[in-house]
Hints:
Elements: E1 6-15, E2 18-28, E3 33-37, H1 44-51, E4 59-64, E5 67-68, H2 74-80, E6 82-84, H3 97-108, H4 113-116, H5 120-140, H6 156-168, E7 174-178, H7 186-201, E8 205-209, H8 213-219, E9 222-227, E10 230-235, H9 237-242, H10 244-258
Parallel strand pairs: 3-8, 3-9, 6-7, 7-8
Antiparallel strand pairs: 1-2, 1-4, 4-5, 9-10
The structure holds adenosine-5'-triphosphate (ATP) and magnesium ion.
Amino acid sequence: MTVALLQVRGLTKRYLGLTAVDEVSYEVEAGTVVGLIGPNGSGKSTIVDCISGFQPADGGRWLLDGHELTGLSPHRIARAGMTRTFQTVRAYDELTLLDNLCVAAQEGDGVGWLQALGRGSRLRGVERAAEARGRDLLATVGLADYAGAPAGILSYGQRKLLAIAAGMMARPRLVVLDEPVAGVNPTMIRRIEQVIHRLNAEGVTLIIVEHNVDFIMSLCRRVIVLEAGRKIADGPPALIRSDPRVLAAYLGQRGAAERGHGRR
Ligand SMILES: Nc1ncnc2c1ncn2[C@@H]1O[C@H](COP(=O)(O)OP(=O)(O)OP(=O)(O)O)[C@@H](O)[C@H]1O
Ligand SMILES: [Mg+2]
């Protein structure tokens, strides 16, 4: 039996009186693109924050390829093979796109450029490798022409593409994209979808957190649904679309009641 690439078991996160994530378990098979959906505040970003090491969890374990990631820092998790993007794109506007990617590489590199200082040839080697990787990724996301331009000139959708490239700098096996197409126009959504397909074809496993249900349903063969911190469904889009608990979560109790489905 093969072990799933990502195993999350009983993940729990509390903020004061609120249980934002309540005993959530799921697995992600290598080579897949899995959607994670749910209403506002259902705990999607909190799950991403916890498994990527940006927030401490209150319970649960998570493993990548059988290796324990529980409690590790973001850069150790990145080194182990999992990175994430943020719902609110983080970029250094005054730096060029290429320099933004080199900074991302530095942040994701457990060795760190600072430690490499004083070892001049090693530093230059690291810089050259990051630059080459950065140029490749800018080509992958269709921003090669902007490599030397400051990130501040990018459109909102282009910033989302830059964020995906930044998330790929550490050569992750699994990348979690938090709302990659939120607020993005239809043409740019298609471009981002192509980039996701391209990365997946190169062997990268992806978890896509989104509100755009149509986007998720067409992109993913498996979708996980959260409501109020709990996993309420997990399966292929056709099953998810007709799941009474999912309809109730999205339409509210009244909408579900009108369809003859009670909440469990
Ligand atoms: N740092 C925090 N401190 C306190 N409460 C928080 C914090 N971060 C999230 N929460 C709460 O945890 C719950 C889950 O939030 P989370 O951001 O994970 O939801 P989400 O599913 O990503 O929502 P959205 O679709 O709006 O991005 C919400 O009730 C939110 O208010
Ligand atoms: Mg969120």
